[in-house]
Amino acid sequence: MQARDWTAIENEYVTGKISLQKLSEKYEIPLRTIKDRSRKGEWSQKKKEFCANTAQKAIQKIMKKEAARLEKLKGVAEELADIISRDVEQLKEQHGKSKMLTESDVKMIKELTVALKNIADVMRDVYGLPTIREKVLLEKHKEWRKSIKEAEKVTGGVIFLPEVLEVVEDADHLDATAETD
Questions:
Q1: Rg (Cα) of the chain, in Å, rounded?
Q2: Closest Cα partner for 10 from 53, 55, 47?
C-alpha cells in the first residue's frame, strides 16, 4: 500500500471545486476515511476561508482598477475644464475689443456649454453624485415611504386603497376629453 499525500489531497479540496466523493473516487480512498480526515482537519472551514480570501482579493483588484479609471476620468475632466477656461478668457478678450458677438463666438459658447455639461456628467460619475432630477425622485420616494409607514401605523399594517370607479385603457381618449372640457 502506497503512502497518501494527505496535504495534497486537502489542498485539492480546499482550493478546488472537487467534492469529497470525487476525491474518494480519484484517489481510491474510502469515502468514510476522506470524510473523517476532512472533519478532523476542518477542511470545510478552510475551504470557506479560502473562498472568502479569494473573493476579497478579487474585489480589491476590481476596486483598484475602478479607482484608476475614476482617476483617469477626473484627469480628463480637469483638462477639459482648463481648455474651457482658456476659451472663455479668449472669448472675453475678443468680445472686449469688438463689443459684438460673431457667429463663431456663438458657436464657441454653445460648444463650451456642451463641454461644461459633459464635465458635470463626468464629475457626477466620478464622485457618485446624483443629478437634480435624481435628488427630487429620491426625496419623493422618501416621502412616499414615510407616508406608507405612517399609514401602516394608523391602520395596523393594512393600507386601504381608494376604489377605482372606471378603468380607462385609451390614453388618447383622455387627451381628447381634456381638450373638449
A1: 33
A2: 47
User: What are 96's three cell numbers?
Assistant: 472686449
Cα–Cα distance measured from residue 114 to residue 124, given in angstroms and rounded to the nearest whole number: 15
C-alpha–C-alpha distance, residues 10 and 175, integer Å: 72
For 48, residues 6+ apart whose C-beta sits below 8 A from its C-beta are none
Question: Which alpha helices (DSSP H) does the chain contain, by range?
Answer: 6-15, 20-27, 31-41, 43-98, 103-127, 132-155, 171-180
Q: Where are the alpha helices (DSSP H) in 5-42?
A: 6-15, 20-27, 31-41
Report d(CA 102, CA 100) in Å as an integer: 6
What percent of the chain has pLDDT above 70?
Answer: 81
Structure confidence by residue, pLDDT tens digits, 17-49: 999 999 999 999 999 999 999 999 999 999 999
Running DSSP on this structure, what letter comes out for residue 4?
P
Grid cell at residue 3: 503512502
**In contact, 38 and 20? CB cutoff 8 Å:** yes
Q: How far apart are CA 129 and CA 19, in angstroms?
A: 46
In this model, does residue 159 exceed pLDDT 70? no
Distance in angstroms (rounded) separating the CA atoms of residues 111 and 146 = 43
